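User: structure tokens for this one?
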Amino acid sequence: MALDDESVDEGGPEDRAEDDAAAAVQRSRAGKHDSMRAADLERVTDYVEEAEILSQNIGDAMKVVSDRQMKEANEKQLKENELSRVKVNKEDIDLVVNEMEVSRNVAERLLREHRGNVFDVLVSLTN
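Assistant:
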């Protein structure tokens, strides 16, 4: 298959100059877009200097956590002491266990929390 002279475009020096000029325009546009993207990135990026973590800060934080845990443990112990002072009847425990199908420990705990009031315990278990 032979090619016609008209279909083949070898491109002279003028065509190469046009191609080079077009490529230069595209590179300059790409450079503009890259610089615009970099500027956008600079605006949205927060610069925070990395701060050195001081051992004193860690110690203070650990003390706060330890104090909070100790306070919670003390409050829990006070609540348990208060609940242990509440008297509950064995018959009430049996009634809650049989009617609501809960363990004896759960029934006793709920009765203590509700000050021995069986009605309140039954209502709380049904809700």
